[in-house]
Queue: 2 jobs
Job 1
Amino acid sequence: MNPSGLAELRTMYVFTPNDGETWGLTFDGFRANLLARDPAAFLQVDEGGTGPVRNTSLQFGVTFGDEELEGFALLSPEGVAVKNCTAQEAASFVVWLRDQVVPQNKAVTFNTEWGIEEDAPDEPVPDLTRPRLVAVFLAHLEALGLD
């Protein structure tokens, strides 16, 4: 696949703390940060039980630039996922997540829906600017053989 095609691929990106660590994520804290970003954000607690998310989750829809991103936050296992987004959208989201939600002394790891299906290990989200994070996410997709 050519680079522009790879950049347009949409998948779910999953962001989590390092193994054995916690961000101290709470639904109330995450909700407050989302509403500070977008007062019109969609927020709904889902008790789980059916579908791909079986634990209680906070479902959300929030505007980033011109895009409406949808996803969910889980407390156990702890993490935040954004669904059906490009590498560029995921990079914008994780920069916000890292700056507004994750404590400064804590790391963020990522994977994609395709990576999880292939048993690819979670990878660290390096402390880079958004354009460089896009390159990291695209390299992840290439390594999965999606090029």
Note: The chain has a mean pLDDT of 91.
Job 2
Amino acid sequence: MSRFDSAEHLYDWQRSGRFPRIHDDIYNLIRSEVSPADGPVLDLGSSTGLLARRLHRAQFVVHAVEADATAIDAGRTAGTYGPNMPVRHWMLTPGQMPEFGEFLRENGVTVVVARRVLPELDNAGVTPELLGATLAKAGVRHTFLEGRAPRQGSRHRLSSVNDEIAGFDERWQATTFDGKHRVYLTLKE
């Protein structure tokens, strides 16, 4: 069960109620830095919704955005997404960033979790610079990034969380590193 979107993760959660260990580190980083009182969370690139559901269980107000309709359907079928855990099917592009910023403002989102999604966004033209600027303008104050696990021979320009941070908007600063590919960013005051 090495893939992040493995159906086995959903099956195991349905059967046991336990969330997959693959989210433990990012979840623990989020919980160590922010609380539900810090405001609503957006799980950007939420896949099947297991991390979003885990944050919701911890009393966060959570919104989810996912580009893969199949992953959303799997999450809805499994019960991670539902009436109290909304998900929006959205393939973000540069032209949609004003609408995305408005979505964040309308929902009062102040915390964003982007787990292993920045390379895919970058491929669609939503660079870390553009994403970081949009988040800052929309009122987001806390961003959690989990980059891809470091691999030798990776050819993507965002092959590590350090590449993602380097490209993130200048209004953000890395506050806490957790391991080789997780970081908590805060908006510079």
Note: Residues 40 and 107 are 7 Å apart (CA to CA).
